[in-house]
From TrEMBL:
Homotetramer. Keywords: Carbohydrate metabolism, Cytoplasm, Hydrolase, Magnesium, Metal-binding. InterPro entries: FBPase_C_dom, FBPase_class-1, FBPase_N, FBPtase, Fructose_bisphosphatase_AS. Mg(2+) 2 binds at residues 117, 120, 280. The lineage of its organism: Bacteria, Pseudomonadati, Bacteroidota, Flavobacteriia, Flavobacteriales. Belongs to the FBPase class 1 family. This is Fructose-1,6-bisphosphatase class 1. GO terms for molecular function: fructose 1,6-bisphosphate 1-phosphatase activity. Mg(2+) 1 binds at residues 93, 117, 119. Pathway: Carbohydrate biosynthesis; Calvin cycle.
Amino acid sequence: MSHKKQTLGEFIIENQSSFKYSSGELSSLINSIRLAAKVVNHEVNKAGLVDIIGAAGDMNIQGEDQQKLDVYANEKFIQTLTNRNIVCGIASEEEDDFISINSQDENHQNKYIVLIDPLDGSSNIDVNVSVGTIFSIYRRVTPVGTPVTLEDFLQKGSEQVAAGYVVYGTSTMLVYTTGDGVNGFTLNPAIGSFYLSHPDMQFPENGSIYSVNEGNYIHFPQGIKNYIKYCQQEENDRPYTSRYIGSLVSDFHRNMIKGGVYLYPQSSKNPDGKLRLLYECNPMAFLAEQANGKASDGFVRTMDVEPTELHQRVPFICGSKNMVEKAEEFMRKGQ
Ligand code: AHG
Ligand code: MN
Ligand code: MN
Ligand code: MN
């Protein structure tokens, strides 16, 4: 990689003035996510050599068996954000409840809250397939000077001030938005710095990839079944190609670069779908919209869904605009 490329650190400083709430705090926050991402990346890369593969022995609030790397990534992100004293609260897929940060921030002066999926795609850890981290950042809504409350975390996705993900893939990338487009940075592991490798990322308006766990087909609503059949028909640019990694981050990343749609619909087994609104869907929806893509539950824009609980699940259709709209059309006609 050329040494002339801009580093993430340089990029953050240069673009600080475009933040909606111009302050150094959001920059420090993104900086600390960058740091935690490097620490987790280091461990992900050694998986197989060190004792970090396999189940941790506990179950999380989602009813999933926690993997050792789920627990490790969760600890590292929470530790880094807490130690650097820049957030007032954190909620995580791996924690039962939100965490109010007052160990360092006794007077509750910090303004930002973070929601994270510390390790996305846990089922891929043991088999050396890409995993990721997803983060979502909001300004608190309760007054500064008081401890955070659930209200601070149950904000609509449209209130996000920043969101992004790290993909630990063939190379490690950090991709994020502060509401002014989407930029991707690749880690040069020899130097330990992220470099701007994918400026102004955009979903192609049309695509030819559909990503869905077709093993659940029988349980899907009729609208989704019909859309899948449409993807498989021989007509114009179809049939489309099916690609499903099973890590939302990696499936989204590929579809953003190549053009495609990701679907995790409701089913008779999971009436609200599987993906979590606050840790997975909203941050990906913000990125998608910032990259000229689209995200909805089939009927309602994801970022307009009113959250009612921390670990809420929603159906999720996300990706290239025309593909999402086609799937929505099938959902409306559906039943
Ligand atoms: P997590 O590993 O954070 O629990 O998320 C897993 C999610 C998502 O990454 C992925 O797209 C989806 O679950 C895969 O689910 P299925 O195995 O049911 O297809
Ligand atoms: Mn999980
Ligand atoms: Mn996840
Ligand atoms: Mn996870």
